[in-house]
Amino acid sequence: MFVRLYADNYRCISGTLELNPLSVLLGPNGSGKSSIVGLLAKLRDFVTGRGKSLDLFPAATLCRWDKRIEQTFELGVKLGSDEYTYRLRVKHEAPERALNKVVQESLLVGGKPLFEATHEVIRLYNDWQSGKPVELLPDSR
What we know:
The protein has helices spanning 33-47, 53-56, and strands spanning 2-10, 13-18, 70-79, 82-94, 99-109, 112-118, 122-124, 134-136. The chain is mostly beta strands and 141 residues long.
């Protein structure tokens, strides 16, 4: 079950939405309801490999009033008694040329890392977060 969605510098969204087992999005036209549902779909597509960051998060998705070129997304999911937090940061290197890259991606369970990736290294942890993580060279995603 989704419990939290955080977006910073995405279309008209900049903040946290806490979700309950039954949540209803209400608001006038242009208030961001479709943006929230669309963002959930884009995060799903990115995580499952159905799209690349440039296709899913082009420069056109940056807030018009914000001059920063980085977007941050977090999705909190509760499965059984465990809460998972997925985090994605995208930096638009050259928005005018439609270039971006993932600068951070991570998955935490109960606040402890299972997966962490930057442009420099990818770390995979075992389920108990004991011992050293396996480190890999990142793929250009």
